[in-house]
Amino acid sequence: NNLTPPNFIKNIITEDLKNGKVDKIVTRFPPEPNGYLHIGHAKAIWINFTLADEFGGRTHLRFDDTNPVKEDIEYVNSIKEDVKWLGFEWEELHFASNYFEEMYNRAVLLIKKGKAYVDDLSADQIRETRGTLTEPGQNSPYRDRSVEENLDLFARMRAGEFKDGEKVLRAKIDMASPNINLRDPVIYRIVHATHHNTGDQWCIYPMYSYAHPLEDAIEGVTHSLCTTEFEDQRPFYDWVIAETEMPNVPRQYEFGRLNLEQTVTSKRKLRMLVDEGIVDGWDDPRMPTISGLRRRGYTPEAIKAFVYEAGISKAYGAIDVKMLEHFVREDLKLKAPRTMAVVDPLKVVITNYPEGQTELLDAENNSENEEMGHRQIPFSREIYIERDDFMEDPPSKYFRLFPGNEVRLKHAYFIKCHDVIKDENGEVTEIHCTYDPETKSGSGFTDRKVKGTIHWVDASAAVPAEFRLYEPLILDEEPEDEGAEEKPFLERINPNSLTIKHGFVEPGMKDAKPHDKFQFFRHGYFNVDPKYSKPGHPVFNLIVSLKSSFQL
Ligand code: ATP
Ligand code: MG
Ligand code: MG
């Protein structure tokens, strides 16, 4: 039992099994198919699947599709793909909408027991008469309708006799309850809309807080795990289970949401970014969606190690994005080949190297993982280096290339600059160097040392490549918090969140496949973009830079 760190839910499950309260753990992940999953959902997915797994239980994937207006099959499909990609397998797949008939029948039972009534008040009137934390609510004038009248009206609501908002069904509990959620909450509303699964079969839909406990009970869920904002809903959850006389009694437990600094995880805002065209769809590599993280190059292993470290508690606090980045570096460190890419190229001519000659140099694929073997890289008279690895008038402590200075080319030779070629605007177009054959990498040359080592690619063999460099999408450090932001959301967008560069990679990466991952020497980890890469012309997404001040 060590798939999750020590946590209070694990303690509860252990007790429940010991006392014989349950004999098999059943959990569920219940997304509403109204958007794509994000990093916060990864935590909920991991908790539900891993806790059940730890105790030999099972987990369902259930689409909580009780609101036809915002839901779509596109989201259903993306959610399935994301859960699978994270490495989880559901034992059962369910749609809440398949329980509409049972939910309706249970509502009829509530009416018959005098526990629910049809109300003609408008949504605004219901809100206004709900009271406050210090003042009780007021009973609706329709609260004392007879059972017969309620049964008749509810049947007519279902039959489509009324317009949206004209009537609702409310639970009859207590308008003076200190818990506002128990002040006769609405449990059914009229919505004339086509549902992605049930089509036009229904024009009344159950509210989330009524539907959710029933869904859990119908599926035999034992531990219904959700985030702490639902804590105040728990008494109503228990009320629904008891009053609808469901034979299975699930229990709700709440854990703290996962929030990341400088990261939006509200579906509403994520949708805004997509709809406004600020990002390239839900899977834009800057998005904190699972599909965005995947396209960026994050791995399921890194995401799971991250949520493990974040832990399961009731605590609510924003985590530094650097922690997530730490885990992707950790995961890729020994897996990704370490190759060379020039993002902003400057041509270097090695004037004492024979024209028309090419040699192959040996390069290890991962200096920390010998098992990854070696590759051969071509070297010839013309190469590309990084534009900012050369300065004509360098400040002191600049150890890279400048006139008269010698540097090491990774896996190759020492080169020394003797000439700078410029265009009519004074822009450096080419630099001329000599190389010293004695200094070949691996030859054991030790006669003199240089302070700088730079990367390069052979100009004649290099493969043109596009590099997409990312910065955070959101500018300020404010943790994302519904309703609390000072500046309008769209003004918090970082205008420099994407920079596109055109350069070169080693010839061996010509046929890199979507999602191949590399560590580019001195740059960072990169992923082959599945959308824009073409055979022979790879496009790389920066996953994460190499260095960080982050410490666990
Ligand atoms: P919305 O309210 O717009 O539907 P949501 O984020 O609540 O958005 P759901 O589809 O209802 O989306 O979420 C599915 C499950 O994921 C819920 O159990 C929810 O508690 C959980 N969840 C959502 N966001 C987070 C988060 N940031 N951290 C942990 N769990 C989360
Ligand atoms: Mg929701
Ligand atoms: Mg929510």
| Biggest pleated-sheet summary | 7 strands, mixed
What percent strand? Answer: 15-25%
- How big is the Rg? 31 Å
- Subunit organisation of the chains: single chain
Structural class by helix and strand composition: alpha/beta
- Per DSSP, the total helix count is 12
CATH arch. level architecture of the largest domain: 3-Layer(aba) Sandwich
- How many β-strands, per DSSP? 27
Bound molecules: adenosine-5'-triphosphate, magnesium ion
CATH topology of the largest domain: Rossmann fold
What value does the average pLDDT take? 95
Query: Helicity, in percent?
Result: 10-25%
What is the domain total for the residues? 3
Which overall shape is indicated by the principal axes computed on the Cα atoms?
elongated
CATH class of the largest domain: Alpha Beta
Through-space gap between termini: 24 Å
What's the name of the CATH homologous superfamily of the largest domain? HUPs
Strand order in space, largest sheet: 12-25-26-27-23-24-13
Low-confidence stretches: none
Could you explain the architecture of this structure?
The chain is an alpha/beta fold and 552 residues long. The chain has 3 domains: 8-257, HUPs (Rossmann fold); 260-332, Glutamyl-tRNA Synthetase, domain 2, CATH 1.10.1160; 338-472 and 480-545, Ribosomal Protein L25, Chain P (Beta Barrel). It is 24% helix and 24% strand. The protein has 12 helices and 27 strands. It has helices at 8-18, 39-54, 73-85, 100-112, 123-128, 147-159, 208-219, 234-243, 267-275, 290-296, 300-310, 321-332, and strands at residues 26-29, 58-63, 92-95, 116-119, 168-171, 186-190, 204-206, 223-227, 251-255, 259-260, 318-319, 338-339, 341-342, 345-350, 358-364, 374-380, 382-386, 406-409, 414-422, 428-436, 453-454, 456-458, 463-470, 498-505, 517-520, 524-528, 539-545. The strands form 7 sheets. Strands 12-25-26-27-23-24-13 form a 7-stranded mixed beta sheet. Helix 2 (39-54) crosses helix 11, helix 7 crosses helix 8 (234-243) and helix 11 crosses helix 12. The longest helix is centred in the first third of the chain and has 16 residues, at 39-54. The two termini are 24 Å apart. The model has no long low-confidence stretch (mean pLDDT 95). Adenosine-5'-triphosphate (ATP) binds next to helix 2 and strand 8. Adenosine-5'-triphosphate binds at residues 30-32, 34, 40-41, 43-44, 226-227, 257-258, 265, 267.
